[in-house]
Amino acid sequence: MKRWLVLFVLLSLVGLASRFAGFEVRPRGNSELDVGTGVYTLPTGGTITDNKSGLVLEARYIQYRDGDFIKAQGATLKAREGEFAAASLEYLQKPDTVRMNGVRFSSKEFKALTAQQGLLLKEDVLVLKGEVRSSEPVLEASTLVVDTANNQALVLGVFTFRDGATTLRGNRPDSTLLLTSANGKVRASTRVPAEVLNRLRPYADKL
Amino acid sequence: MGREGYRAPGVGPTTGTGAGGQGAAKPPLPCALSPLLLLLALLFSGLAWASPTSPIPCAEQPYTLETPEGLAGGGNLEFDGEVALFSDGACLQTKGLLLQAPSLRYDQASGELTARQIEVETPRYRFWAEESHIQDQVLRASGIRATTCRCGDDLRLLSKTLHFDTQTGEVVLEDSQLEVYAFGLAHFSELRLDPNQPLGDNLGLTPAGAEAPLALPVRFDFDQGLNVGLSEFPLPDAGGRSGKFSTRLTLLGLRLGSPDPILRLGLAAQEKNRRASLQLDSKSSGVASRGEVVDGPLFFVHDSEKGRYAFGLKQAFALDRFILIPYGWIAQDWRDGTPATQEQGLTAGAELRYNLEMQEGPFRFRLEPFGVLGFYNQPQQYLAYGGYAEGRYEGDFILQVGYTWAIESTPGRFWLERREATQKLSGSLRYRGLGLEAGHDFLKAQTEASLRIGLVQDYGEVWAQLHTCWNCVGKTLSNGRDDWERRELVVGFTPVPLSCTYDLNLTPFLGYDFLRQGVSRWGLELRYADCCFIWRLGYQEIRLAQHPDEVANGKLTFGLEIR
C-alpha cells in the first residue's frame, strides 16, 4: 500500500507542471512558425523544459502557441519521481489541463501504470480511464481518480488490487475504493463518504 | 431371496442429502421446487443450508480479499495494508467450510482472522459461535451451537469450544452436550466430528457397516402382542471421553398382552478389539440368556436356549492369499436343540482358506477353497472342506454365477467348527429395472427364484417382485423348521427419499400368494420430514406366512431418523 504514496507525490509535481508558464524550447530539428496563427511546429520534435518545476517534456512531434497550448505526440513528461509517457498529449493553459492518450506512468515504485486515457486538471487531479493497469503492485481498474491536494485516490468499477500475498477485489460495476494517504500510510476503504464521492466522481466524467 | 426383499427399496431408512433445506428463520419452501433445490444443492454441495443473512457465495460478495486462510468477502472493507476489516455481512470460504459473520477482521501480518457471532456451514452441519479465530487453516471458536437440522435446532450440540482443522476436516468439540428439544441427552468432554459424516456415525449410533441413518433406539410396535421399550439404546461412556456411544442398553417388553410375554434386558459394549454383550429373556417358562465376550483371540459365547456354551480362542493369520485360523475351545452343544443330544468336550484344530481373485476387463473370477481339520478329546477327528467359486460380468448388465460346496467327513460335535454339507448353485442377473436371482440346492433338490421388475419415475419407483420356491415342501431348514412351497407376488411403490422439510410420502406394498389363493401380506408406511428428523409410522400385516421364519400377524411400527 505504501507505493501509492509515490503516486500522490508525483502528481503534486505534475500538477505544478501544468502551469508551463515560462518554458524553454529546444527543437530537435527545424522549428516552424505560422505567423498567421502564432503556432510553432517542431516536426521532428524536441524538448520543452519548465524552468520553475524542472519538468521536461520530450516528444517526437510538438506544436505549441505561447500562453495557449502545447500538443505533442510520442511524448514523455519527466519529473524527478517518475515519468509519464503518452501516445499523444495536449496541454491547455486555459483551462489548465493536460489530456493524454495511451498513458504510461512509471517510477521506482510503480513499474508501469497504464491507461487508455489520462487527464490532469489544474486542481491537481489526475483521471485515468479505460483499462487502468499497473503490474507491480498489480492494479486493474476501469477508472482511477487521484486528488493530490487531498491525498485521495478513488477507484471506480470492477477492480483488482494485489499487493504481496493479498488480493483485494471489487466484484461489481458500482464498486468503489477510496485510498487515503495520511501520516505516511495509505488506507483503503470501500465505504466512500458521500462528500468525497460527489466531489471526485464528476472528474471521471470529464474524460 | 428371503423376506428382506420387501423392504429393499426405500421401505427402509433413506439417506436423503442436503437438498431442500432452509435457513433458520425461513418459512418452508414449496416442494414443487425440490428438483431445483436438489440441483442447487449438488452445485453448491456445502451450501445447501444457505443462510438468510448471506445467501450468496463468498466469491460473489461485493468485495473480496484472497488470503492464505481462504477467500474473505463482505459488503464493505477497510484496509490499511495490515488489517482488513470486512463489514455489512462478511464471509470466509475455504476448503470444506463457509463461515459467515456480521464482520470479519484479518491481520495480514499474523495471518489471523477473527470474527464474532459466526455461522459455519459444512455439508452436513451448521455451527454457530460467539467468538472465533482462524489461523494456519484452523478455526478455533467458543460458545458453540451445532446442528444437523435443515431449519431450527431442535437437535443440537452445545459446546464450550470448537477446534476445526480445515485441512484434515476434523472437528473437535470440548465440553459439549447433546440436546433434543432442549432436553439434555448426553455430555461429552471431547467429541470428535467428521463434518462430512452423519451425526449418527459421528456419535457411534449407527451400527458399523450399516448404511442406514440412525434408527430410533425406542421400539413401539405390535406383533403377536405389544413390543415396547428401549432397543440398543446408546449410552455415553462414563466421563464421555471418547465422544462415542459404545455402550447400548436394551430393556424391552415383548409380546405384551399375549399368553407368552417376554421381558428382555440386554447390555452391550464395544471397544477396538473387544466387545461384550449379555441378553436376558424372562419368560413364563423361565429365564434364558445369551451373550458373548470377545477380547482379541479369546472369546466366551453362550446361548442357554440352545444349550450352547464355549470358551476358547481363535486367531487368523494371513500370508499372501492364504489365511490360517488355528482354534481351540471347550464347548457344550445340544445337537438337535434338546438336552438329550448334549455334547461336551474339548476341540483344537485349524482352518485354512485360500482366496484367489482375478479380473480382466468386465470379467471377474473368485475362488475361495477351505479345509478344516479338528481334533476332539475323543478318538474322533473332524474334517471338512469345500469352497466358493464365482464368475461375474459387470458391463451393461451384471451377471453372476456362483457355486458353494462343503463336505463333512463326520458331523462336527460343536456348532463353532461345523461346516454343514452344502452344494448350491446360485446366479443373478441385473439389467436396468430388472433383477433375477435364482439358486438350486443339490442336496435338498430344491430351487428358489426371485424376479424383480422396477419402473423408476421422478417421484419414485413402482416395482413388482415374484418369489418362488420349487420343490421345497418338507425340506428342513438349519433352524429345524420345515420349508414350504412359495409362489408370491409382491407389488409396491417406493417414493423418492424425502428432501423437502414438512413433506410426507407413503410407501405401500401388497403381496398375493398364488398357491393359497389369497393376499399374503400388505403394508403401508407414512414418512414425514420436519427440520431435523424423518418420522415413520407404518403397519404391516402378514396374512399368509411365506417362510418358516414368518408368523401371520400384524405389526405397527414407529421410527425416527436424523435427516
Sheet having the most strands of chain A: 17 strands, antiparallel
Largest interface: pair, residues per side: A-B, 20 and 19 residues
Specify the helix fraction band of chain B: under 10%
Mean pLDDT figure of chain A: 84
* Mean of pLDDT of chain B: 84
Name the assembly state: heterodimer
Terminal Cα separation of chain B, in Å? 30 Å
For this structure, what is the CATH class of chain A?
Mainly Beta
Gyration radius of chain A, in Å: 18 Å
Give the tally of structural domains of chain A: 1
| CATH third-tier fold name of chain A | lipopolysaccharide transport protein A fold
Region (Disordered) (chain B): 1-25
Protein name (chain B): LPS-assembly protein LptD
Organism (chain B): Meiothermus hypogaeus
Biased composition (Gly residues) (chain B): 13-23
Question: Characteristics of this structure?
Answer:
heterodimer, A: 207 residues, mainly beta, lipopolysaccharide transport protein A fold, 17-stranded antiparallel beta sheet, 17 strands, 56% strand, B: 563 residues, 3 domains, 24-stranded antiparallel beta sheet, 2 helices, 2% helix, globular, LPS-assembly protein LptD (chain B), LPS export ABC transporter periplasmic protein LptC (chain A)
Could you give a short description of this structure?
Chain B: This is LPS-assembly protein LptD. Chain B: Residues 1-25 are annotated as: Disordered. The complex is a heterodimer of chains A (207) and B (563). Chain A is mainly beta and 207 residues long.
Describe the structure.
The complex is a heterodimer of chains A (207) and B (563). Chain A is mainly β and 207 residues long. Chain A has a 17-stranded antiparallel β-sheet that branches. Chain A is built from two helices and 17 strands. Chain A has a single domain (3-205), classed as Sandwich (lipopolysaccharide transport protein A fold), CATH 2.60.450.10. The longest helix of chain A has 15 residues, at 3-17. Chain B starts with 33 loop residues before the first helix and ends with a strand. Chain B is globular, with a radius of gyration of 28 Å. Chain B has a 24-stranded antiparallel β-sheet that branches. In chain B, strands 1, 2, 3, 4, 5, 6, 7, 8, 9, 10 and 11 form an eleven-stranded antiparallel β-sheet that branches. Chain B has three domains: 1-44 and 433-563, no CATH class; 49-122 and 125-196, Lipopolysaccharide (LPS) transport protein A like domain (lipopolysaccharide transport protein A fold), CATH 2.60.450; 336-431, no CATH class. The interface between A and B is medium-sized, with 20 and 19 residues. Strand 17 of chain A pairs antiparallel with strand 2 (70-79) of chain B, so a sheet runs across the interface. Chain A: This is LPS export ABC transporter periplasmic protein LptC. Chain A: It comes from Meiothermus hypogaeus.
